[in-house]
Inverse folding.
């Protein structure tokens, strides 16, 4: 089973709130010094799911990302984890795009890669939290699309996915090729083994531009425009409840809740 | 700029009636339609949903487009997508709103790509400025807010975070013009739901609409300590929730996750036990009117969002707290 995994490089989502800063004029996050961007968490889950399917059924795993040259590091990590190949889409005209731009560029790149049975994406990226790209890929490529997926099984000629719904899950049978947006419940991503890290250092990563993908005509221009990015503080002063014994603390807290008419 | 054709909302039903998000869609939809000077239309798609039409009228819709067909009663969004695409093309609304719920957010994204327009998902505020819809959504897990517009393409599409908007109030004297929409769903089925597994309803109130919620985080140490959360919840008559770390670790089912990728809740009281307060978790509970944090780390981010806090070992605090609450409630 040949699998394509779409990957995004994002600012580290674990930057503590006190160090999280944005440049309002540029509409961008200013990462604290020394904190490198990382592979989007759900994309790492998708890659892990792809590697497990490859281990069970054979095939190739190709990682694709749209980003600047710095996104190479994330692709190298994908190769180190076990991806067989990686492709970087890098073009100034595609970099400042929206979900439409990204899905369009990824779809063209996926078509250029060629043979594939399954496209796995993270359910959403931890920077924009939009969750549109996997569904957009399905629309552009005309493929069945399932989101969010917490388990994947290969069946005879098709695939069975477990889709999370509000009060449980649906088991969905889909024809291949198909697109799936993976959620974290599918399993923790592996750490790259040392052998993989050495291999990744030697792997050539081709760079495709908008022209390579036939998108130098502006057809992937964004539909949505960022107007403002800002931090809204909702912090409030916390009243700490204390006492000499746990019983005293508990009684004092219960009393506070009673006074606030919460119990 | 195309002529204002008003606001179209896609209502959602559950068990035959309207889902709560429908009133929230009509609430903000009415505000936007008044600013634009256009009509407020509600579309409802499903099987046996005719009764929802009058309820949508009472909630303020001027026009209700009713697409009622057995094909639309099947699980999944394929049929709804087939039905909605021509409907939206014909109505050509200026603004199109859906709920950010599991089915509707999928439907919205796919529809936006079919229509070739722009969508902002999981919005927490909407306003019209200079005739253009400004859509606010939390980004970076909730660390920042972003405002987006769709400058040229139409409709301007948004999905609304549940419980972030004030619901429209029902007025039994208000009636909508109801129009039946023919449904032609003929697309080849490439995926089908073969089984639906519902998690057993936990005892106590449901998480989504509970007035009080007690959540547990990784700070509990392990699943064997989960009973502390349940004990406290039982004393308060509260629902039980969890952080993503806890649901990912499989201590409790995924449906209990409070946060960005779980449930968004707005209870009167939210008690967080052993919860550090990652921004992605705060995104799901910051609408709570009162947050109480019990955590042994005084620097935990949760205290920045809490009204009351206890710095200490939950194993020592929770049992006497539950006992004291029971006494006070007697």
């Amino acid at each position: 089973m040949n699998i394509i995994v779409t990957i995004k490089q994002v600012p580290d989502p674990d930057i503590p709130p006190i160090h999280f800063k944005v440049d309002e004029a540029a509409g961008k996050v200013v990462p604290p010094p020394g904190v490198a961007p990382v592979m989007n968490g759900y994309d790492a889950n998708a890659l892990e799911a792809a590697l497990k399917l490859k281990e069970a059924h054979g095939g190739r795993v190709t990682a694709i990302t749209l980003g600047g040259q710095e996104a190479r590091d994330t692709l190298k990590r994908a190769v180190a984890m076990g991806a067989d190949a990686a492709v970087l889409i890098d073009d100034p005209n595609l970099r400042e795009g929206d979900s439409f731009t990204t899905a369009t560029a990824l779809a063209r790149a996926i078509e250029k890669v060629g043979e594939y049975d399954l496209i796995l994406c993270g359910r959403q990226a931890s920077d924009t939290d939009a969750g549109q790209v996997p569904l957009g890929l399905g629309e552009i490529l005309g493929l069945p699309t399932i989101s969010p997926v917490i388990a994947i099984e290969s069946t005879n000629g098709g695939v069975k996915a477990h889709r999370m719904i509000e009060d449980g899950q649906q088991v969905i049978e889909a024809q291949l090729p198909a697109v799936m947006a993976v959620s974290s419940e599918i399993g923790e991503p592996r750490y790259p083994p040392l052998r993989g890290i050495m291999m990744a250092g030697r792997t050539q990563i081709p760079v495709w531009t908008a022209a390579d993908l036939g998108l130098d005509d502006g057809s992937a221009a964004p539909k949505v425009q960022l107007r403002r990015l800002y931090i809204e503080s909702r912090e409030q002063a916390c009243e700490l409840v204390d006492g000499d014994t746990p019983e005293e603390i508990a009684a004092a807290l219960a009393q506070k809740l009673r006074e606030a008419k919460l119990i | 700029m195309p002529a204002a054709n008003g606001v179209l909302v896609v209502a959602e039903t559950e068990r035959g009636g309207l889902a709560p998000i429908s009133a929230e869609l009509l609430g903000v939809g009415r505000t936007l339609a008044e600013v634009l000077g256009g009509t407020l239309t509600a579309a409802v798609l499903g099987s046996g949903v005719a009764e929802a039409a009058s309820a949508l009228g009472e909630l303020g819709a001027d026009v209700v487009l009713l697409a009622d067909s057995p094909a639309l009663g099947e699980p999944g969004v394929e049929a709804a997508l087939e039905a909605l695409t021509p409907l939206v093309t014909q109505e050509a609304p200026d603004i199109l709103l859906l709920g950010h719920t599991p089915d509707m957010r999928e439907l919205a994204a796919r529809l936006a790509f079919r229509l070739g327009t722009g969508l902002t998902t999981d919005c927490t505020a909407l306003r019209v400025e200079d005739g253009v819809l400004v859509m606010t959504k939390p980004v970076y897990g909730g660390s920042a807010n972003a405002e987006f517009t769709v400058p040229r393409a139409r409709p301007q599409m948004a999905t609304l975070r549940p419980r972030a908007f004030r619901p429209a109030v029902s007025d039994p004297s208000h009636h909508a013009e109801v129009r039946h929409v023919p449904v032609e769903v003929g697309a080849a089925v490439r995926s089908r739901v073969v089984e639906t597994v519902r998690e057993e309803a936990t005892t106590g109130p449901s998480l989504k609409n509970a007035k009080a919620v007690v959540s547990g985080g990784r700070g509990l140490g392990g699943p064997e300590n989960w009973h502390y959360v349940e004990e406290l919840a039982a004393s308060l008559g509260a629902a039980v929730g969890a952080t993503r770390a806890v649901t990912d670790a499989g201590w409790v089912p995924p449906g209990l996750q409070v946060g960005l990728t779980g449930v968004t809740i707005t209870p009167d009281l939210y008690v967080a036990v052993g919860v550090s307060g990652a921004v992605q978790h705060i995104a799901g509970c910051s609408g709570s009117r009162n947050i109480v944090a019990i955590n042994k780390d005084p620097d935990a981010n949760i205290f920045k969002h809490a009204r009351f806090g206890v710095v200490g070992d939950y194993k020592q605090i929770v049992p006497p707290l539950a006992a004291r609450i029971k006494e006070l409630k007697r």
Summary: The mean pLDDT of chain A is 94. Chain A has seven helices and 15 strands.
